Fold this protein.
Amino acid sequence: MSTLTHSPAWRALEAHRRSLLGVRITELFRADPARAERFSRGFGRMHLDYSRQLATQETMQLLLALARQADVEGWVRRMFAGEAVNDTEGRAALHVALRTDQVAFPAAGDVMPQVRAVRERMRETAVGVRAGTLRGAAGKPFASVVNLGIGGSDLGPRMATRALRACSGAGVRVRYVANADPADLDAALAGLDPATTLFIVTSKTFTTVETLDNARRARAWLERSLGPRAALAPHFLAVTANEERAREFGVDAERIFPMWDWVGGRYSIWSAVALPLVIAIGMDAFDELLEGARDMDAHFHTTPPERNLPVILALLGIWNINFLGAGTHAAIPYCEDLRELPAYLQQLEMESNGKRVDRDGKEVDYDTAPVIWGASGTPSQHSFHQLLHQGTRLAPVDFILAADGEGDQHARDLLLASALAQGEALMSGTASEEPHRRVPGNRPFSILLLERLSPEALGQLLALYEHKVFVQGVIWNINSFDQWGVELGKRIAVDLLPALRDGEVPPQVNSATRDLIERIRRLRRPHA
Ligand code: F6P
């Protein structure tokens, strides 16, 4: 048994969970008329309502004791000081430096001059593209920007470009290509003019095969209409920590934006990785996004745990996962412009905390990150909410709502009424003589209500989730900043690639994979 599951705080929570067996959330409301107020907190442009979690004041006290036992406050201090909290890679995790004005990251040195210099270059480039002064090989301004990147080099800016579409105006069109499937790039390039298309190759390592393959195909597409490779430099920018490889690919040194080893891919939306986003929404809106995140950082850094939003969200997750047995957690934005948020959170949470070995190298005997999933409401109601209401699994939800926004008011009211109605149904359910009509209720969820989907509110929301993930990692005693598990599949894919052509199937490959490779070769049309 690990020290964690053996610890007094953990044991106390287990005993407490037994005492709550059979308790209904509706009863908790009856017993405490102030529950809605007591179990909600506001910060900045958001309000967190967690009154419909299956938790009492005692639950929260015991969870806070668990956080104290794990020294969450100490870890927060260490992260903000720039200490190497990513211990398997010996690095700091300083994404907070990317949105701050302050200079004090004692353990990591003064990173701020580099951060400011890159921000300035992003501003100049975005202005140049948006104003049409930065031009392609044929002297034409850019009408389209295509970002080639995957994982953290795609999901953040892709999500935020859609979320902040209201800031874009009718300027340059920005598209994102992540998949190795050629269909992704082909669809993105459909209708684009090579002479007015700018590619941004975004890859921290500049070794990710999907991104490099797409970049080569993009270059071939340009070559076909704009002439030799040497003339194509104006059509490429790169964002990377591996300048040498970017230059080898053919990107001019002054067109390369740096990344740093102290920023993980999934925490990099605040860096030059956001260049396509900045081109889409403008630097002023991006500054507001940074400002929102900065506010959340200050809140997280200085607010006592019992009033600290990321800590509260993290503890509720721990309660649901480790004590109530939830294996999944859904994020359902009732906000179509946040429709890419679940995919972003999937990487943030599952790549960060999908770990089975603790910081001491020991296998854990408790669950870590749940399966994160979700989609935008209201369409989600007509696909998977049936399971939320009547299924056998406990599937806690974060509903994310914006009180105000653009567009038809009736439609917006319908959207919000639908979200609130889901909450009522999940909590209260309904009785019926007929078993199949009975909805049990008592299903836990939280509501994050944003004033509106502004850059500032989005910055606060994303930083909230980043810090939530960190707190959970601290409590589970795992390193949230590495991702060794992803490497294995990448390596095997590189080994298998020649076999799909006419090469040898590597001898160590399993017979099922070998059969499939042979079948794929037979099924291929000769020209493929
Ligand atoms: O999927 C693994 C991963 O390493 C992510 O952590 C990262 O965001 C993604 O690949 C892309 O990596 P890169 O930016 O180096 O191309």
Notes: The first strand starts at residue 40 and ends at 43. The chain has a mean pLDDT of 94. The two ends are 54 Å apart (CA to CA).
